[in-house]
Amino acid sequence: MKIYKFLSLLCIAFSVFTLISCQNSDDDDPQDTSTGNLQIKFENGFNNLGNIVLNQTVQTSAAGQKHNFSALKYVISNITLIDEGGNEFKYNENNPDKGAFIIDQADAVAGVVYIDLNNIPKNNYKKVKFGLGISQKAYLLGQDGQAEFWTKAKQKGMSWSWAAGYIFVKLEGKYGSGTADTEFMNHTGNMGNVTANTTPDLYREITLNLPTTARVTSQIKPSIHILADLNQFLSGSKTLSLTTENNMMMGSSQHLVDVTNNLTAMFKVDHVHND
């Protein structure tokens, strides 16, 4: 009888061990083709303090100029997730209808604008890469190849005529030496086909390291919280000042090339949630 009980307990223990082993094996299965979702949060601020309030929050630039924003919008596209082995998952690359987003401070909820990405392959991701603006490859697909996003961009005031293309970054507000009382408008973007028009290409790609691995599974939806430091606008790698010569500019003039180069450095990942 004792031997029978011993054998029964041994059999049960073996069965539990086998079940756990199979579950662990399934979790680590490199052939697992399941997908999940991922969220990216953009929080715009000055000096990474977050939550710019349009028409209210005032910043002093490195050159001593006061400025605030009445409009703060930019286009994010070509999001790429990079795993621990350096492999890349490109989310609707050069497909603005499905893979481009407008970050508009007017849409912020508690200072944050949310992007939700679906059908992300299960994996552990260590970096995120994205474009600021719309790539030439996507733009040259033509208006029919991005009709949905083009319509959305027009509604959001993030486009010119089709021949000119998209506005990549729209910054509007007021500036001044003592108080911010003079209006400015800086709209960056490519002027159509930059090769044919011999104009600068202002599309930029940014790669950010994640401080914590984003673990995408069918049960876990990571959230990547990105801070955008708009102090870089005038106080980035090149200190800029707004004047009567550049305070009302659209396109890809040298001033707007400098603005673009400054803004390229404004992003950093603050933290990652795996919930």
Automatic annotation (TrEMBL):
Q: Which Pfam families match?
A: MbnP
Q: Which UniProt keywords apply?
A: Signal
Q: Where is the signal peptide?
A: 1-20
Spell out the InterPro entries in the cross-references.
MbnP-like_dom
User: Domain Copper-binding protein MbnP-like spans what residues?
Assistant: 35-249
Q: What is this protein called?
A: AZL_007920/MXAN_0976 family protein
